[in-house]
């Protein structure tokens, strides 16, 4: 994987929702967490 590849905002949003769902398996949460670590940082609103 290239260093500059990032997870899209849409995928990051879905991954975030999966991590919050208590019914989701640990394996799915692991993949979701991996996707979030590759997502670009959100810019802070001033």
DSSP strand content: under 5%
Task: List unreliable stretches of 5+ residues.
Answer: none
Mean pLDDT: 86
**Largest sheet data:** none
- The rough form would be described as globular
Tally the helices: what do you get? 2
What is the CA-atom radius of gyration, in angstroms?
12 Å
Helical coverage, percent range:
40-55%
Order of helices and strands: HH
How far apart, in Å, are the first and last alpha carbons?
34 Å
Overall number of domains: 1
Count of extended strands:
0
**Computed structural class:** mainly alpha
What does this structure look like?
By secondary structure, the protein is an all-alpha fold. The chain has one domain. Helices cover 52% and strands 0% of the residues. The protein has helices at 9-20, 26-37. The termini are far apart. The mean pLDDT is 86.
Characteristics:
52% helix, 46 residues, mainly alpha
List the helices and strands and how they pair.
Layout: H1 9-20, H2 26-37
Helix pairs in contact: 1-2
């Amino acid at each position: 994987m290239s260093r500059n590849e990032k997870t899209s905002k849409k995928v990051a949003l879905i991954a975030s929702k999966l991590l919050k769902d208590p019914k989701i398996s640990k394996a799915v949460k692991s993949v979701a967490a991996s996707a979030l670590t590759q997502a670009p940082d959100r810019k802070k609103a001033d």
